[in-house]
Amino acid sequence: MSIAHKNKSDVILYAALKQFSENGFHSSPVSQLATRSGVAVGSIYRYFDDKEALIHAVFSMVDDTLQKTITESADPTLSGRDEFIQLVTSLTEYLNKHPQEFKFLEQYYSSPYGSDKKHAKFLSDDSVDLSNPFVNLFSGKTKGMLKDLPLSLYLAMTFGPIIFLLRDSLSGLVTLDDCLIQQTAEACWNAIKA
Amino acid sequence: MSIAHKNKSDVILYAALKQFSENGFHSSPVSQLATRSGVAVGSIYRYFDDKEALIHAVFSMVDDTLQKTITESADPTLSGRDEFIQLVTSLTEYLNKHPQEFKFLEQYYSSPYGSDKKHAKFLSDDSVDLSNPFVNLFSGKTKGMLKDLPLSLYLAMTFGPIIFLLRDSLSGLVTLDDCLIQQTAEACWNAIKA
Amino acid sequence: MSIAHKNKSDVILYAALKQFSENGFHSSPVSQLATRSGVAVGSIYRYFDDKEALIHAVFSMVDDTLQKTITESADPTLSGRDEFIQLVTSLTEYLNKHPQEFKFLEQYYSSPYGSDKKHAKFLSDDSVDLSNPFVNLFSGKTKGMLKDLPLSLYLAMTFGPIIFLLRDSLSGLVTLDDCLIQQTAEACWNAIKA
Amino acid sequence: MSIAHKNKSDVILYAALKQFSENGFHSSPVSQLATRSGVAVGSIYRYFDDKEALIHAVFSMVDDTLQKTITESADPTLSGRDEFIQLVTSLTEYLNKHPQEFKFLEQYYSSPYGSDKKHAKFLSDDSVDLSNPFVNLFSGKTKGMLKDLPLSLYLAMTFGPIIFLLRDSLSGLVTLDDCLIQQTAEACWNAIKA
DNA sequence: GATGAATGAGACTTCATTCAT
DNA sequence: AATGAATGAAGTCTCATTCAT
Fold first, then answer.
1. Other beta carbons within 10 Å of B144
2. A20 interfacial to chain B (CB closer than 8 Å)
3. Using CB atoms, which residue from C106, C149, C184 is nearest to D156?
4. How far apart are CA C183 and CA C178, in angstroms?
5. Are the Cβ atoms of C110 and D112 closer than 8 angstroms?
6. Is the pLDDT score of C4 beyond 60?
7. How far off is chain B from A85, nearest CA to CA, in Å?
8. Residue C193 forms beta bridges with which residues?
9. Which residues does chain D have within 8 Å of residue C188's beta carbon, measured at their own beta carbons?
10. Is D141 helix (H, G, I), strand (E, B) or coil?
């Protein structure tokens, strides 16, 4: 099915993701979103209550895909260490290959729009959410393999470096290749392993 | 020297820092900056070319102070490990006690305004800048004490977790006390030590 | 004949009367009229040229019914005074029991839409229209019973108080019961009787 | 003092009164109000929070002047009947000479904006407001001179006919000259006198 | 005949910037 | 130097109307 036959609301969502990640929310007038979507301004308001609703909808789309990606990469047959490395690697690779999604998420979480959600499930400290593969991992299989630290620190030592490197990668300061990703994942593990 | 006698441009800068960190660039009309500064709108334009110039000036002010703070906390008499711990601790404590500055920097770097500067000196990968105490440390005293990794990864393993925790702290998800800061600094070291 | 089998254009007219009287012309988007009518937006445009035509059509419907009601209540066997009282009472009771119609008329006449028609037949000074029972009454049977005043003043002393009270009734400032209606009709008569 | 030197907010208020009375609230875009005021759109928002606030401000201006006019025309030395005639005459003459004010008030009270105030003091049933010369009159001097009717009916018999005639006058259906005004005032009195 | 998605003109409002005082 | 009233471009959103299905 060609893009021309896609759901119009999906067309708008993708165009908005592009526009937002390139220009930011405030430099993305609805008129421009409309142009990029190939629809009229009014049509956007048929699918989304207002600009804010559109932003949240883009977030949901991005977040859902990210979650599915990571969840699918979790391999319970691996050792605790190897599953950790695997998860970190998958997450980093995905975001590195999807810079628009990464930029959007960064912007969303640091904006008033995302302050509710605080952190996305995969980037967050929502410690009760066992559906998060990372939280699940830290709460289960790795017991005894890790230093005794608060969950929030496990998460900070995992996501913090990744996010930092992804930013540098976007800025062109760093080339985030497989080797560097591997090194990063191992360093993260070393930071928290017993 | 009381605030009343300060340079008028400094008064504006401080008021702008407050306003920007609390409300964001786009919810900070110049008229409001003027009110909070206790000056007229027109006066802001005497000291700064336009709103964007003011934003960059606030950044310079914040960045300068941050640099000075960290540079002053560097203690060459300590061992490589201890100096690292010391630097990380100082930086984290400073930003934790100055949430306005942290919020401003976060916002600045994720905005079009800060995309030029890429990363502030202390949060960055500007690898040639030996005046940055971290770069200086990784390039000198710690030689041989660390795994052989790219500088950018050293920096990512240092700043990434801090920034992540500071965000969580601001969101109220985590209490960033001395103990957690100490644990974090040590974990960072473990991540990169040989 | 149930409402479901009514003429589609009548269904639209009734829904529009409701909507207009409750929300006013400008807070009644055609889409909402469609929803309340249970028809599609496009269908409204099959029966009415545009929104303005619909408004005029609602007026005609309301005005026709009102005329018929009053005309039917005229009783030529009564004395001039009693027929006057009877007409005033009927008109007031009808409008008091049909607040939607009254609200609509008020709105219509005070809007650009109704400025053409000036005044509805029953509320007007259309002095040549003998089909209007009031005009008919003032021009015939009551000759000699009334002070010598212009017809427009007869009409003003008749309809003015009624309209005023109906407004107050709608506002909840007054309870327009049978007693008050009777008192009003008599006061109107006293105002103009010889 | 020429109009050019008037308070700018007054200039806007007068232009708005004109525009609203001629075209109605909904056919008076702020851009047109600005043009007629000879100011930029933005300037209107310096003086009034939004269009609604402007509408209310126009009402206050009109209502204040009307109140003052009527209050000043009250003559306590006259008999109850003569003071009543005097008040009715003054009110009618004032509104007849100020059709813009009359149109505005009609529109205001029949709009959502004026539904709070229900009725203006001089056109209303606010029965406790003795500062209203009419209410004051009906509650005092005329005791015993009037039929025993509810205050709301006194008011309806007073204002109803006037408003009706003023509408007809605006429509050109009637010429509201001194003679007709006098006849009306007397008919009103006859309607309620004992 | 009926439908309702699509359109885009136009309304309201904000706010960076200017400039006469 | 300081002031703040004035400006108008630009943004968000609504809704009457059209037209392909």
1. 8
2. no
3. C184
4. 9
5. no
6. no
7. 14
8. C146
9. 157, 191
10. coil
3-class state of residue D150 by DSSP: coil
C-alpha distances out from residue D76 to D69, D87, D143, Å: 15, 11, 15
Which candidate from B147, B156, B173 shows the least CB-CB separation from A164? B156
Report how far apart, in Å, the C-alpha atoms of D183 and of each of A173, B38, C108, D70, D88 are. Answer: 92, 64, 29, 19, 11
Q: What structural domains and CATH numbers belong to chain B?
A: 1-48 (1.10.10.60), 60-192 (1.10.357.10)
D156/C168 Cβ within 8 A: yes
What pLDDT score does B1 carry? 44
As beta bridge partners, residue B146 has B193
Q: How far is the CA of C66 from the C1' of E10 (A)?
A: 38
Helix extents (H) in chain A: 8-23, 30-37, 41-47, 51-73, 80-97, 99-109, 133-139, 151-171, 178-192
CA nearest neighbour of D21 among D106, D83, D95, D94: D106
The CB-based long-range contact list for A71-75 (8 Å cut-off, 24+ gap) reads A71/A131, A71/A133, A73/A133, A74/A133, A74/A136, A74/A137
Confidence of residue B62 (pLDDT cuts 50, 70, 90): very high
Buried b (16+ CB within 10 A) or exposed e, A9-43: bebbbbbbbbbbbeebbeebebeebbebbebeeeb
- Quick one: what percent of chain C has pLDDT higher than 70? 89
**pLDDT-based confidence at residue C128 (cuts at 50, 70, 90):** low
pTM: 0.91
User: Smallest Cα–Cα separation from D115: which of C24, C174, C171, C172?
Assistant: C171
| Cβ atoms of residues C134 and C121 within 8 Å | no
- CB A139 within 8 Å of CB A80: no
pLDDT above 70 (res A3): no
